[in-house]
Amino acid sequence: KMAGTTAALWSEVNRCGQNGDFARALKSVNKILQISKDDVTALQCKVVCLIQNGNFKEALSVINTHTKVLTSDVIAFEKAYCEYRLNRIENALKTIQSASQQTDKLKELYGQVLYRLERYDDCLAAYRDLIRNSQDEYEEERKTNLSAVVAAQSTWEKVMPEDLGLREATYELCYNSACALIGQGKWNEAMKKLQKAEELCRQSLSEDSDVTEEDIEAELAIIHGQMAYIMQLQGRTEDALQLYNQIIKLKPTDVGLLAVIANNIITINKDQNVFDSKKKVKLTNAEGVEHKLSKKQLQAIEFNKALLAMYTNQADQCRKLSASLQSQSPEHLLPVLIQAAQLCREKQHAKAVALLQDFADQHPANAAEIKLTMAQLKIAQGSVTKACMILRSIEELQHKPGMVSALVTMYSHEEDIDSAIEVFTQAIQWYQQFQASQTRGNAQGFPKSPVHLSLIREAANFKLKHGRKKEAISDLEELWKQNPKDVHTLAQLISAYSLVDPEKAKVLSKHLPSSDTMSLKVDVDALENSHGATYVRKKAGKLTGDSQQKEQGQGDVKKKKKKKKGKLPKNYDPKVTPDPERWLPMRERSYYRGRKKGKKKDQVGKGTQGSTTAGSSELDASRTASSPPTSPRPGSAAAASATSNVIPPRHQKPAGAPATKKKQQQKKKKGAKGGW
């Protein structure tokens, strides 16, 4: 009876398995295990049912509790697969490697595990071996995975992708090919591939009647995201931002895609629109993101989180994130640069420089970039000389034209011409030593490189500009030796020698070309009449015979201009002698007596109506003998008598003035309309 029951249960398990009903199959398996708890086949079936239902933890627990029965040879693939799905990638690798027999299923899983561990070279070899030794309906999927590995190598390791010779018949293959092109910087070609991938995707999905337009757009989201990324790289930030936001509105289920898009939007916003960036950063914290993205993608997201914290004045959060990043990647530049930037925002420039100096001492390989940042901070503080010292300590950059130019400019700003010339000298010597190492064993040698000659010319011009003609001569001679036909260099050399050795200058001047050889055939009329000419010669009119003779005979005599007669005033009388003081202002003339205010001598005062101002005759300056003139005559003394007790008119307070002022105020109030 028990045997019959077990057989019936196995029959039920088999039927449910074929129908894909693994939940019912699991119930039947559990009944079998109640009868025979160590049945290997039943335990295997239970593990498979749990995996099919997505219960990976429970499946792994069953495997681990029955290790005596379920040995690695029996259950290796299922165990490794559960560990892989639970993101225990290292454990999955150990399980696969410990298996006594490497089945095709284990090899497939091995390739996936290597890809997740970012061991792309080993992964590529594994998939090549699978494609070579397998012939089944999964060949297209293997080729897709192979192209994904090549794309990852191009993107993250900057390896030139191999031509796999794969026919890009599916949108997945086209998409992976586009990713490989992006890694090479071929953005236009990559965009064309993505457009082709979009077209193939629409064609493939539209053949299924059950697929809606929303399903197609969801599948196209990753292709559109990559298109937006290319737009961002090309500087088309507005187009990229628009496409990114369209994808977010679709609410795709891929948390990895959403995290990358949110991160890219944050990089577009930078220190602007930080409110939007703070909303977008939440998408990068979604559960499971760390298992969907590569290490470099996750690292970039963390860097941007630290920068966003700095821009939003969250100093503690910025320091915490950057310190965590530095502990994860001690040799990486960005964490220490972010910490230094935060210190600078807090006006702690000295601490920032000290931090950068410590990093440069600990990591000499990255010292050059750090020292460039230190120099920039010193310049911001106004310590140009110290910045120059830091820059000159970067030995691998001392001979670079950009570095030479920067140092010379800064030393010139500090008026340290000797140091600037020393910079030129050291750079020229570096190129001389480099050339000597290249020409060893070759008697003829090589001509100087264009960069070397350019530095010599710049050094010569700089010395000439700052009056160091003696020092410039050797540079100019070297340049002329390299190109004897260079007339400009020869002219500079002659000019320099003219102050040092005039005889040498005369000898060198013989090498100058004659004026005939240097003359240029120029159409003067065409040049003068050309657009933009500052002077245009007037066309001469036709001259008569007499005028031509006059012009020829009196060509050297300057034509005299006739003087115009001065205009006389309308009331001019030749019989009357002009006023000798007519050139003086009226106030300074001797006969000026001031401006009369009225015709009557005794004017009515401004006090009570009908009354006269008290002492008006006494206050008349013209009647007072001791009063000085309003404006002194030219050449006369302007001092007033010290004993005079007369108050000057401008200090006199007329009688009745307050009453008048009050009356005027009353009138104003009476006639005012629409006041305050």
UniProtKB/TrEMBL annotation:
Report the record's Gene Ontology biological process terms: SRP-dependent cotranslational protein targeting to membrane
Query: Pfam families, alphabetically?
Result: SRP72 (PF08492), SRP_TPR_like (PF17004)
**What name is this protein filed under?**
Signal recognition particle subunit SRP72
Q: Which residues form the Signal recognition particle SRP72 subunit RNA-binding domain?
A: 538-594
Keywords for this protein: Coiled coil, Cytoplasm, Endoplasmic reticulum, Repeat, Ribonucleoprotein, Signal recognition particle, TPR repeat
Q: Name the residue ranges with Basic and acidic residues bias.
A: 570-591
Q: Bias category Basic residues: which stretches?
A: 558-568, 660-676
Where is it chiefly localized?
A: cytoplasm
Encoded by which gene? Srp72
Q: Which organism is it from?
A: Nycticryphes semicollaris
